[in-house]
Amino acid sequence: MEPTLDQIVEIIQKNFGPYRKPIHENSRVEEDLHICGDDGIDLLEACEQAFNISFDTENNSFRNRFSLAEDEYLFTSEGLDLLGICRFVDWLRGIPKPIIRDVTVGKLHRVIVEAVREQTKQD
To answer: Fewest CB within 10 angstroms: 21, 76, 108, 120, which?
Structure first.
């Protein structure tokens, strides 16, 4: 049985508490739900455990599943750089500013369904 969008919403609410606004397919995980950094990783791990899958397998990588380029990430870091010193040092070293690809709950659901289908076939 494939995971439903409601199951994904339930995982979010179970791990991060209730939200004032309803969570739907177009809710952005970071911008709307304020899940970032380690909390974002916790959400992905909770989804992997709930559906007995892995986002990063021998046949399909995490970056491929979420269509991430080399300098793109799903979540911002939780670090604090008040004066911008770290960003300045990265700029001096030629390290580009990371691009955050804010995933929607709907996209997360589609990736999970794809992973379940793929990993069920292999069993």
So the answer is: 21
